[in-house]
Amino acid sequence: xxxxxxxxxxxxxxxxxxxxxxxxxxxxxxxxxxxxxxxxxxxxxxxxxxxxxxxxxxxxxxxxxxxxxxxxxxxxxxxxxxxxxxxxxxxxxxxxxxxxxxxxxxxxxxxxxxxxxxxxxxxxxxxxxxxxxxxxxxxxxxxxxxxxxxxxxxxxxxxxxxxxxxxxxxxxxxxxxxxxxxxxxxxxxxxxxxxxxxxxxxxxxxxxxxxxxxxxxxxxx
Length: 221
Fold this sequence. Notes:
Layout: E1 2-13, E2 16-28, E3 33-37, H1 44-51, E4 59-64, E5 67-68, H2 74-84, E6 85-88, H3 100-109, H4 115-128, H5 144-156, E7 162-166, H6 174-189, E8 193-197, H7 201-204, E9 209-214, E10 217-220
Parallel strand pairs: 3-8, 3-9, 6-7, 7-8
Antiparallel strand pairs: 1-2, 1-4, 4-5, 9-10
């Protein structure tokens, strides 16, 4: 599903360059559940942003479902991202001016789904994540844990082929965190490819494979 060849990300620093990622080369098959681990500053979140087509300034080759992302313009990347990827951000990235229900509807609005069907999917997600009572609230009215649940619900609502999750249980208590990881396992068993970044050994244990980054390099795969 994903092929990366010599992915590099760097910034100019004085006369030289500072590398965040160096020669990242790996393959991730459809249906895999992969964890990316490493110390702070290793490049984990940067790699996830490139995979999710949120970061366009990098070098190397990236194929997603055999399509050459590295040859696409920003509009084409955004389009394939909307159609393919569900993203759980560490900082939630909920839209402050929209209610919980409206935030959940956004990924569905990118697809060719009838309004009545979208309403049913939103209602189902609200129920599944036990946030029915929050549907008309705005993100600023929610706790960090509640915002995290909404962010996960938004990522999975449109049944994306690929879920990218950055510390998906970081602000949840242990029972909620376990529920999210079990949901990911269920989705993975149904064929969804999942790539998560985490410091949690417990969360990593749900995956089939661990890629370790250090100073921008893959040191273990």
